[in-house]
């Protein structure tokens, strides 16, 4: 089980490394998912917009497990989410693993589209 997870995470990292030329950290992965979900590419994002993109990514990822759902989009096309159920309390390593599992599922779903 642990080896399977490690292999799946490595596959995601390798795919992103191949695409962008360097191994991304968690923030970079969330930023990329946020841009994908916003579906609006700009050359520059403000610091606040980057934080918002990572929030969009996190909500998108956690919507896979029913913690959030999309309420709609605002006039600028930004998705807005509502919490459906609280995310369980976890330690930092557990949170990272939890997000990684959701990231793996997200990219698996993208490949299946």
From TrEMBL:
The organism's taxonomic lineage, starting at the top: Bacteria, Pseudomonadati, Bacteroidota, Chitinophagia, Chitinophagales
Species whose genome carries this gene: Chitinophaga rhizophila
Name of the protein: Uncharacterized protein
